[in-house]
Write a structure and sequence with these properties.
It contains seven helices and no strands. By secondary structure, it is mainly α.
Length: about 180
């Protein structure tokens, strides 16, 4: 029986038979709370969406700062961009515990999607000029975002250690289950 079939049997057992004692009611409530808590956090929407959105939001913040402040030098823009990407990775790692490298990868993917969106949106805002060097722009932002996210992921892993849930289950990355 697959996971879906097991889940259906589990939910059916929670709903179908009325409990005969107070003890059974408490046991069913406890099982329901455990399934609700761990079912959504294990492979939930937040583990994927939060890092992606943090990466995209950090790039859009860089874009807004670039338009509003018009930085004096290229180096200051790069440093601000790297700092915002690092801050986005810290926020994403704080919200999604356990896998900082996965979080960093999703954050960089969010930056990539935001760069593509900015390339599409920017000409309509600024007056319709073409951007024929957009592949270099994508490469530049990825070269700034990747090390920023990766360094924070490494620091997060060093400071907070590996995912203890996976180690307790015996899945420490060596291929054993």
């Amino acid at each position: 029986m697959g996971k879906r079939g097991q889940a259906q049997v589990f939910w059916h057992s929670l709903i179908s038979a009325p409990p005969s004692s107070e003890k059974e009611v408490k046991a069913k409530r406890a099982r329901l709370e455990v399934s609700m808590t761990f079912g959504f956090r294990k492979n939930g929407f937040a583990r994927t969406a939060v890092p992606f959105l943090c990466g995209a939001a950090s790039f859009f913040l860089v874009w807004i700062l670039d338009l509003a402040l018009e930085p004096k030098s290229f180096l200051s823009l790069v440093l601000v961009e790297a700092g915002l990407f690092a801050l986005a990775c810290v926020v994403a790692c704080a919200f999604t515990s356990g896998q900082p490298f996965r979080t960093a990868g999703l954050g960089v993917a969010g930056v990539f999607a935001a760069v593509i969106a900015e390339i599409i949106i920017h000409p309509t805002i600024e007056g319709g000029y073409e951007r024929n060097l957009f592949p270099l722009e994508i490469a530049f932002h990825m070269l700034v975002a990747s090390p920023s996210f990766l360094l924070i992921a490494v620091a997060w892993r060093v400071c907070f250690g590996p995912d203890t849930k996976r180690l307790k289950q015996g899945q420490n990355g060596s291929g054993s289950s």
